[in-house]
Write a structure and sequence with these properties.
The structure is a single chain. The chain is an alpha/beta fold. The mean pLDDT is about 90. It has 11 helices and 7 strands. It has a 7-stranded mixed sheet. It has 2 domains: about 45 residues; about 160 residues, Rossmann fold (3-Layer(aba) Sandwich), CATH 3.40.50.150. The radius of gyration is 18 Å and the shape is globular.
Length: about 250
């Protein structure tokens, strides 16, 4: 990815300043650089944005190494209310591979789905944790530590697999740090995937309060370009299953 900050020395110093806080050391430098640019190199604002959309999921309970894989799924903010059995029964089809963008710890739930599974995750600890789980449980899976804004890399991953389904669970708001990036990503991968399954939250992660954000702009974009084969609510999320044949 090309440098986003004009002076490479300034770029490096700003990234290192952000990473002086331990919670940000698990994130790719390219992501930190991106958020610095969007916040005009303001380190304080950059940390606040990264914390809101990324490191909010890192807690001492989850990184201490004392919890079982199942306990981690139940305590992680974005997965604790998911009924994975029912969800997978509904969204899995005849795809050969699943590519899970912004996976969090979803990979800890895929031991029985009998499909190749590739996770892309910005928090290195969680990518490493999923790879450890795959190894210990003989899962045909791999977790890649990476930045979802590196669209060339994402396209390469999707393009390299045969008949993949792409999952985009609860990542739309983070992608929209760059306005319009969600649409750009969906269009970019639509030529290479069988379908996309995306979700967005219907309650705040921490306080579990319902909110009214409908993402109508996203729904309109999808309906104008693709066919929605399923649209349902589950726990604190709304899911859309998108067939990628153009209307």
């Amino acid at each position: 990815m090309p440098s986003l900050i004009e002076n490479p020395l300034t770029e490096s110093l700003l990234i290192e300043e952000v990473k002086q806080k331990k919670e940000f050391r698990e994130l790719p430098d390219s992501l930190i650089e991106k958020v610095l640019l969007l916040n005009k190199n303001d380190v304080k604002k950059t940390r606040a944005v990264l914390r809101k959309y990324f490191t909010v999921f890192i807690t001492n309970k989850l990184v201490g190494g004392k919890l079982s894989y199942g306990e981690i799924l139940k305590k992680h903010l974005s997965t604790q209310e998911r009924d994975y059995g029912s969800l997978y029964k509904r969204i899995l089809g005849d795809e050969d591979c699943i590519i899970d963008l912004g996976a969090g710890v979803n990979g800890l739930s895929v031991g029985r789905i009998r499909k190749k599974y590739i996770a892309v995750e910005a928090i290195k600890y969680y990518a490493d944790l999923m790879n450890k789980f795959f190894s210990e449980n003989s899962v045909n899976g791999a977790a890649v530590w990476g930045d979802l804004f590196d669209l060339d890399k994402i396209i390469k991953i999707v393009k390299s697999e045969k008949r993949p389904a792409v999952w985009m669970f609860n990542i739309i708001d983070a992608l929209e740090l760059e306005k319009g990036f969600s649409k750009k990503m969906i269009l970019a991968i639509s030529s290479y995937a069988e379908k996309i399954v995306l979700s967005f939250p219907t309650r705040s992660l921490k306080k579990k309060r319902k909110f009214s954000a409908s993402r109508q702009w996203l729904l309109d974009f999808i309906r104008d370009n693709f066919e929605v084969s399923d649209n349902f609510a589950s726990d604190s999320e709304r899911f859309l299953v998108i067939k990628l044949n153009k209307k």
